[in-house]
Structures are given as structure tokens and as C-alpha cells.
Amino acid sequence: MTPRLTRKRRAALLRAAAHPRGNIDPRTVSKADEIALETLGFADSIDDCGHVQGAPDPEGEHRGHPHLFRITTAGRNEIAADTATPCATPDKGRSAPAAAGGGPDTMTQPTTPDPLDVRREIDRLQRESDRLLIATAARSAFEDLVDQHDAMQRQGDNSPEADAVREEAAEYLSGRRPVPPPVRPGELITHARDRVAVLARLAEAGVEEAALGIAEAEAELAKELHKVRADCAFCAIAAGTAPASVVRDWGDVLAIRPRGGVAEGHLLVIPRRHVEDAGTDPKLSGRVMECAAEFMAEHVNANIITSKGDAATQTVYHLHMHLLPRTADDELPLPWTPQQEAARRTEGNR
């Protein structure tokens, strides 16, 4: 019996297609999934030269090469054909649209959605799911590459594998290959909510498995909402679950207008990922500073201020940098100005 390309297996292929080397993360598939994908010819154990494990190797050229579970050309063609067909038949994990030409019980009720409209919405949701899967996989592969590159640099690794990693990293550093932007939490939350709404319409239309689809979408929504720290206003803004006036968005960093800014042009520059302060993750702090510096270049006079801890006047424990344009007569005190003035008065009374 030929195995089916289930939603989970299809998602693994989508992620692999976005990976620079076509790798399939073993954490995302079971052994049964691996066997099924191999049986279908969509994945196999392949080395960097394209040699399939077990295939003839009379010269021994591929002996000792690491063979990783990767998507095959047939797998890439399957994904390309599937995503190019807007009305592909949904799989078990994907709720099926109501069949066109249904009986009078489903087609004559005024509250029953038009099957063609439902099909279009399902196709739209599937395309968005594919986009998010591919974007997430591409970003994850890039971050894995950066971590691998940094580890090899620290260890002074000069092996052929390390050279290959350096060459791949150089593609991004040189700009020849664009850096994949991170998928924003708000996008995942919006998509999950959208799925719940569409599947609810399917359930009303009497489509089988719609209830299961709703439960899955609600669980996905709950998981994404759980990632947003309930006690952090900036996390909620970064996730798109709280309103904010966004001035610039770099993907991983935001510039927003604070409520009740202390000066004209006052901005807050915050990372999407939650870190408490500038000392928690120096690399991320440097990235936030890099973004804030873009605004500094636009002003003749300005301050960049960030704080760590209560004694340093930090009130929101999510790294943020204040950018304050300044003028000679703004009379705006910095956090330490009152202490300086008190010290000068004390000095003058001696």
C-alpha cells in the first residue's frame, strides 16, 4: 500500500525545500514518516554531492561522506506542483471544503456558505500556511548556520565541513543571498485566528473533520499567545496583540512612539524577542543599538538612553532604547540631572 503524503509529511518537505541543503530536521518527523517519504521517493539519505546512500560508488568517492535525510528532486517537484495548484485536494490534516453540487439540505439553507467561497478561503489559508512554514524554515536554517559558523570560528575549526559553512555564511555577509527575515508572532497569531474562523464556517456547512481542524487551530493559537509574555507590554506590541504607533520595522527590531513622549520625536527602539535589559544578550543589544543609530544619523543633537535595574530608573523589563532629539533650550533633564544639580548645590554650600 502506497503511503499518503499527510499534512505533517508535507510540512516537513516544505521546510526542507526552504533549507539551503534540503535537510529534513529529524525532530519534526517520526521514523514512520521518514520511511513513508523515502518510499514515496520524496526524501532520502543524501550527501552534499547528491549521492544517495546505498547507491553504487565504485570509486569510493563518497565513502565517509555524511549522508543526511534530505528532500529529493521528486520531493521538490511534488511541493512545487502542489503549491501551484490552487484547488489541490486537502489531506486528512487539512479540513476538506464542502463539495460543489451538494444536496438540498446543505445548499438551500440561507446560512450555509457557498462551497466555492469556502474553497477559495481554504486555498488562501493553505497558501498562507505554506508561506509561514517556508519563511520559518528559512529563518531557522539561517540561524542554525550562524550558530554553526560562530562555534567553528571559536574552535578554530579548519575542516572541509567548516570551510563549506564559511562559504555559505559569506553568501549572506556579502549580500549575495538575502537574510531571511524572522516570522513575526503577530503573523502566526493572525493566521491561527483566521483558520479558526474559516473552519467554523466549514463546521456549519457540515464538513467532516472541521471540528478536529478547529481544535488544532485553537491549540495553535493558544500556543502562539502563550509565547507572548502576559506581563510585558513590549512583547504584546511585538506580537501584534497590543496597539502601538510603529515608526520603523526591521523585522527583528521595532521603533515605536511612546505614550506621553517627553520630547518631539521621542522614540523607543525595542527587540521583538524578550530580553530584560542591555546586559542580558550583548549581541541583541548591539543589533538594537544599530537600528537606533539609524535615527541618530537623522538628528544634529540626540540622546540614546537605556537602563538596567530599578536604581538606574528601568521600569519596563524588556530591553528598550530611548532616542531623544535635543535642542539647546529644551530644558529636558536626563535621569541623573537632578542628582548632578543636588551635588553642585552641596558643593557650593561648602
Q: From the helix content, strand content and strand pairing, which structural class follows?
A: alpha+beta
Average pLDDT, rounded to a whole number, is 77
Number of domain modules: 3
Major beta sheet, strand line-up: 3-4-5-7-6
Number of helical elements: 11
How can the largest sheet be summarized? 5 strands, antiparallel
Helix content: 40-55%
What is the overall shape? Answer: flat
The fraction of residues in strands falls at 5-15%
Catalogue the unreliable spans: 85-110
Number of strands: 7
Describe the structure concisely.
The protein has 350 residues and is an alpha+beta fold. The chain is 47% helix and 9% strand. It folds into three domains: 1-84, no CATH class; 90-227; 245-340, HIT-like (HIT family, subunit A).
Can you lay out the helices and strands and say which pair or pack?
Elements: H1 7-18, H2 31-40, E1 43-46, E2 68-71, H3 73-84, H4 104-107, H5 115-155, H6 160-173, H7 185-204, H8 210-227, H9 233-239, E3 245-249, E4 253-257, E5 267-271, H10 282-296, E6 302-305, E7 321-325, H11 337-349
Antiparallel strand pairs: 1-2, 3-4, 4-5, 5-7, 6-7
